[in-house]
Write a structure and sequence with these properties.
Length: 185
């Protein structure tokens, strides 16, 4: 089976490919612009995005809306993560966290999957901390400033290890359960 991953972010496609290949699912990277509504709810962004894509006649796809929610910043950048990453970047996040003792943060990933006429929406989470400096050059986005174990950042660990604990890995495991329940795989 082939599923389109509709995203501007090749890092996401690589993570999906790694996790879903063993179920005989091939990922095809597709860049297809669609309107992302601005709300504070990842699942609403995904559901509205899926409606917009289906309205264009596209089927059998995955979209993923993710965000980094920092406790001390009251959940910022959250649903505005892509904008924050493009504007202030990781140095900006580190500056906002300068001198802040509470380093707690949570990555969340909401996956919307349209497959064989069914709609599956699942959300995975991963708790961790914001580091004091950027570390590592693997991964993408906020990976160099997020550590799930308080020792190494997501940019310092292999993709397999990131997937075994990450928000996206957890969301993919929920997606696999749902695909099995729907007898898609
Ligand atoms: P889309 O085209 O799929 O929307 P995007 O990169 O804009 O791609 P999101 O809006 O879902 O994706 O992501 C919000 C931001 O969070 C974006 O800057 C990502 O780089 C970052 N991000 C998402 N998942 C991440 C991960 O696993 N590790 C680090 N940063 C991540």
């Amino acid at each position: 089976m082939k599923l389109k991953v509709i995203t501007s972010n090749p890092g996401k496609v690589a993570e999906y490919q790694k996790e879903l290949a063993e179920y005989g699912i091939d990922m095809e990277h597709v860049r297809l612009p669609y309107d992302e509504v601005q709300t504070s709810d990842l699942e609403e962004v995904v559901n509205k995005g899926m409606d917009a894509i289906i309205a264009q006649g596209v089927r059998d796809f995955i979209i993923d809306d993710s965000g980094l929610f920092v406790d001390a910043l009251k959940g910022f950048p959250g649903v505005w993560s892509a904008y924050a990453q493009k504007t202030i970047g990781n140095p900006g996040i580190l500056r906002l966290m300068e001198g802040v003792e509470d380093r707690g943060a949570e990555f969340r990933c909401c996956i919307g999957c349209d497959v064989m006429g069914k709609r599956i929406v699942v959300t995975g989470k991963c708790r961790g901390v914001i580091t004091d400096s950027e570390q590592g050059d693997g991964g993408f986005g906020f990976d160099p400033v997020f550590s799930h174990d308080g020792e190494r950042t997501f940019a310092e660990i292999p993709m397999d290890e990131k997937n075994s604990v990450s928000h996206r890995g957890n969301a993919v495991r929920l997606l696999i359960d749902a695909l099995k329940a729907e007898k898609v795989i």
